[in-house]
Amino acid sequence: MAFGLVLVVAPSVARQGFSLLVYAAPERIDAFGQEPSRYISLAHAVLGGVMVGWGAALFYVTKTMFARGSKTAWNLITLSVVAWFIPDTSYSLLSGYWQNAVLNAVFFVLFAVPLWATRNSLRDAP
């Protein structure tokens, strides 16, 4: 959620961060011109808003169902992570933006490690 919020409330930081990630130069995206930079900021803000919403849903599922030991909650979280990771990472690689795939892999590991660690401790809902 914090990463999504940064995309929304700090558009110049987001542009510079992705510019550094993809082009190894924080000012490269801004060099595209004002209109393209504004549009890229809009795309980042939309993605950030989606990430905040997804994070809120995951937080709620984790604090309620998952905390009670629900296997369904584990499945929901796992499904949402996989449903994000596969298409996002596939497109990133197919379009030549491997740097985003690496960033995705870092976030995937942040989700996967605790999910893997809890996979056997949950039970089916009664």
Elements, N to C (H/E): HHHHH
Shape: elongated
Largest sheet: none
Task: Pick out the low-confidence regions.
Answer: none
Estimate percent helicity. over 70%
The tally of domains stands at: 2
CA gyration radius, whole angstroms: 17 Å
Count of individual helical segments: 5
Features:
126 residues; elongated; mainly alpha
3D structure, described in words:
This protein is an all-alpha fold. The chain folds into two domains: 1-50, no CATH class; 68-126. It has five helices and no strands. It is elongated and about 55 Å long. The mean pLDDT is 94.
Compose a concise summary of this entry.
This protein is mainly alpha-helical and 126 residues long.
Topology (elements, then pairings):
Elements lengths: L1 H8 L1 H13 L10 H33 L4 H24 L3 H21 L8
Helix pairs in contact: 1-2, 1-3, 2-3, 3-4, 4-5
